[in-house]
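Regression test case RT-17, inverse folding.

Input:
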């Protein structure tokens, strides 16, 4: 058997490839004669016969047994030179190619023309379904977001390690209506039939194969009874040489932690855990010698001091996500981090009896599959980051969204974690299916990619961009599409639409447009250039007469241009313009150009009850007047400029529409467009709303078309929401005292303890969406002592259907001015309402920040209530739940 390499095997023809797949399943049998063919069996079976002297390997090809020696001889004779005395030389590098039937004869013997051998498959490598994502250095992204130069995660088939390669080219095709489906209970992979697939190398002949994986096309994979596709591998990372408990702590913080002002000096961390499992966290903090405060209750809270957190944690994480630095974790440091994640938000299934604490610690040194783990999160970004990190650490993370059973739950992401390197597809889970959509691929140095479709991560081959030329002349890379044309040099290139979705003007040749063939245009929209151009006849006087194109073509009829037609100063000759008729001022002449120029000129028309329309030109009084007077039946209306002697001096010097006492009123109607009324009192009326106030300055009351009142600009008003202490819930672990005061009760906060009360607020329907709100604290010092009191509110504010963000901390330092029983009202800084709507909810807590150095008042203070002041732009909302 020749010394061929594993990379040459995938291009065997189908019969030989079936045999190759079975090389690991050879039957061994002792016989009397090894040279006698076996009996029975089926296609691709292999038997090694041993008669004590000779060993012969037999292969069944379509029901006929042939020994391997005869098979090789047959292949050699197939390509043997017919030149006598020369002898045939078999090119073992290319004998296994699909082009094995191509011959050459020359003086050195026959060599096979390798044609489309393995490296030639790039022309038809093709691609993945459009919903398949690629794993890059920045995470999983859809194909639409891929850019040339992005770094994609790939598998190096020489080292069997994952590494990042820059993307050299991107392909998007629309010509495939069938794809190969690899489907099992974890998901489905969809690729084009000739796509290059990776599968597990089970070769037993090569003792030390360079690669753990072989390649074949997706269509060829259909014939394989067992097909193992790789899903992860090892990757070189960093060794940070910190205690493993530190990485457990980072995992715990991401799962169960809470940040206080992570971008400011007040940076601190709290970790929440049920009392039954709190010892696990406390042991970690103790081993790391971390200063912390523990609050007891059904849920134990561990507060890590801000100075230590700033110095040791801030460089690793500033939010509940996996940072770029954590992406470099490997080996037991990574598994310690994973243990912290799983302890808080994970579960385990085990074939052995083991506690959750021990199961999490066990995976640090031994991920043997006896314990299976799942991680749960509602954060899709964190889910993607963890799947990325698992893949880099030779673990498989299969993710899917699961709906939870209790009312109000929106569900969460579940990530099943195993140490499996491959995913199995048998002959019943592979088939060709119909497909409608784009397919895509990219080119990278290692010719492999890490991808994900519907939560299933896998590693496969890619399309190649050989010798920096396009592999398949039918397709173009994204960078080969052009926006504008430079002429003949762009012949054959595909075009790309501009930003407005239009073909660029440089792509269109006006000479290709046959103007005379355009239809559905009348004479005034698109001229028949041939008809009137024929009438451009020069006259003896140097002008050119367009002539008469037709009785109805009034735009060109009897028109002459003076001067030369090529002269840019061409003008219409005045002598050719139709002059106005000269009419006497006689009412009996009915002409359209009749001129009214004095007081006695009138137009009389009996139709529509119009009695008289008169032009007035009065000079009485101090101001001139000019106006129309329309007399209808017994009433009259005036429109124009008036003097101070007209009806009422109110109209002096003003343009107005005035009706006399016999008119019923003024009615203004617009068939199309708006009617706007402007006045000194700033009133504007149009079809959509009525505005009253400083309209030009933007500060006014508007009445909208549906009758809704709205306040704009400085016309808005403010409302208040009061939160009395009897509507608040005191913390279980650190409650303020319920203290009798005057005619009721208040909350008493002492100076030594951070006592907490919680409350909730919904923004009402009259809230002006997107504006800030301000909290006020109403309180009283318990005596006449002096000093400062620090109040703090932690809040998380979210719209309906939005996720509640990490808490924001706001504090205010106020002075107790030494007056007993004084009602003090002090404001916090404004809470930003950008993007917030009615129905949004604030989850809040109020505390006296007693251990803050700025809190110097030594005695208790009494909290009576909080008030929230907000801006109002309507009386209520237009709909029940929307503004």
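Golden output:
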């Amino acid at each position: 058997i020749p010394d061929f390499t594993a990379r040459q095997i995938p291009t065997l023809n189908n019969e030989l490839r079936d045999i190759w797949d079975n090389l690991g399943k050879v039957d061994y049998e002792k016989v009397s004669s090894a040279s006698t063919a076996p009996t029975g069996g089926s296609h691709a079976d292999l038997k090694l016969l041993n008669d004590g002297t000779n060993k012969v390997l037999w292969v069944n090809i379509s029901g006929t047994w042939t020994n391997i020696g005869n098979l090789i001889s047959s292949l050699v004779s197939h390509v043997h030179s017919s030149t006598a005395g020369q002898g045939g030389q078999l090119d073992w590098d290319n004998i296994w190619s699909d082009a094995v039937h191509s011959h050459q004869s020359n003086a050195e013997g026959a060599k096979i023309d390798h044609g489309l051998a393995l490296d030639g498959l790039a022309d038809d490598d093709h691609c993945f379904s459009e919903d398949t994502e690629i794993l890059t250095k920045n995470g999983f992204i859809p194909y639409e977001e891929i850019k040339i130069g992005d770094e994609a995660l790939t598998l190096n088939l020489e080292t069997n390690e994952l590494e990042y390669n820059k993307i050299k080219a991107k392909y998007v095709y629309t010509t495939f209506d069938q794809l190969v489906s690899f489907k099992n209970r974890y998901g489905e992979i969809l690729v084009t039939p000739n796509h290059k697939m990776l599968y597990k190398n089970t070769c037993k002949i090569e003792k030390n194969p360079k690669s753990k994986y072989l390649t074949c096309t997706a269509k060829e994979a259909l014939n394989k009874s067992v097909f193992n596709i790789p899903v992860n591998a090892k990757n070189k990372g960093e060794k940070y040489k910190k205690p493993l408990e530190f990485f457990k702590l980072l995992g715990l913080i991401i799962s169960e932690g809470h940040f206080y002002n992570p971008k400011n000096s007040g940076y601190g961390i709290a970790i929440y855990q049920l009392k039954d499992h709190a010892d696990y966290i406390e042991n970690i903090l103790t081993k790391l010698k971390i200063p912390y405060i523990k609050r007891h209750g059904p849920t134990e809270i561990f507060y890590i001091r801000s100075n230590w957190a700033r110095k040791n944690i801030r460089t690793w994480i500033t939010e509940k996500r996996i940072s770029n630095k954590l992406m470099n974790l490997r080996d037991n440091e990574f598994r310690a981090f994973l243990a912290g994640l799983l302890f808080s938000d994970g579960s385990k299934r085990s074939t052995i009896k083991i506690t959750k604490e021990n199961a999490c610690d066990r995976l640090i040194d031994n991920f043997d599959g006896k314990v299976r783990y799942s991680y749960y999160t509602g954060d899709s970004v964190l889910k993607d980051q963890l799947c990325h990190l698992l893949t880099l650490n030779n673990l498989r993370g299969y993710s899917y969204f699961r709906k939870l059973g209790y009312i109000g739950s929106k569900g969460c992401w579940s990530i099943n974690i195993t140490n499996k390197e491959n995913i199995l597809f048998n002959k019943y889970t592979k088939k060709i299916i119909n497909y409608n959509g784009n397919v895509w691929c990219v080119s990278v140095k290692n010719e492999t990619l890490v991808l994900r479709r519907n939560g299933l991560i896998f590693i496969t081959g890619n399309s190649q961009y050989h010798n920096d030329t396009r592999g398949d002349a039918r397709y173009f890379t994204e960078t080969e599409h052009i926006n504008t044309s430079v002429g003949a040099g762009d012949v054959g290139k595909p075009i790309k639409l501009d930003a407005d979705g239009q073909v660029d003007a440089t792509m269109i040749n006006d000479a290709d447009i046959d103007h005379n063939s355009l239809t559905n245009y009348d004479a005034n929209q698109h001229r028949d250039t041939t008809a009137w151009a024929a009438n451009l006849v020069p006259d003896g006087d140097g002008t050119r007469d367009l002539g008469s194109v037709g009785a109805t073509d009034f735009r060109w009829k009897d028109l002459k241009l003076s001067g030369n037609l090529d002269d840019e100063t061409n003008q219409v000759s005045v002598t050719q313009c139709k002059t106005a008729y000269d009419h006497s001022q006689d009412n009996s002449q009915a002409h359209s150009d009749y001129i009214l120029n004095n007081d006695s000129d009138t137009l009389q028309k009996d139709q529509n009850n119009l009695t008289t329309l008169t032009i007035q030109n009065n000079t009485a009084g101090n101001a001139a007047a000019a106006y129309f007077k329309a007399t209808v039946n017994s009433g009259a209306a005036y429109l124009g400029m008036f003097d101070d002697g007209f009806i009422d001096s109110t109209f002096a010097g003003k343009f107005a529409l005035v009706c006399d006492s016999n008119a019923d009123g003024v009615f203004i109607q617009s068939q199309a467009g708006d009617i706007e009324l402007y006045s000194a009192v700033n009133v504007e009326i149009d079809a959509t709303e009525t505005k009253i106030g400083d309209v030009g300055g933007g500060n006014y009351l508007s009445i909208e078309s549906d009758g809704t009142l709205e306040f704009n600009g400085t016309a808005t008003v403010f409302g208040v929401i009061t939160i009395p202490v009897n509507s608040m819930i005191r913390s279980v672990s650190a409650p303020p005292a319920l203290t009798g005061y005057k005619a009721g009760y208040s909350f008493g906060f002492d100076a030594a303890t951070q006592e907490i009360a919680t409350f909730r607020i919904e923004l009402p329907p009259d809230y002006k969406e997107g504006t800030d709100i301000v909290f006020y604290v109403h309180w009283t010092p318990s005596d006449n002592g002096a000093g400062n009191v620090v109040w703090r509110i932690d809040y998380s504010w979210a719209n309906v259907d939005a996720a509640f963000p990490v808490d924001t901390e706001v504090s205010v330092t106020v002075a107790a001015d030494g007056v007993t029983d004084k009602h003090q009202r002090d404001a916090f800084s404004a809470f930003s309402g950008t993007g917030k709507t009615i129905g949004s909810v604030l989850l809040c807590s109020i505390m006296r920040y007693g251990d803050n150095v700025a809190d110097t008042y030594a005695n208790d203070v009494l909290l009576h209530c909080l008030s929230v002041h907000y801006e109002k732009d309507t009386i209520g909302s237009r709909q029940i739940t929307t503004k």
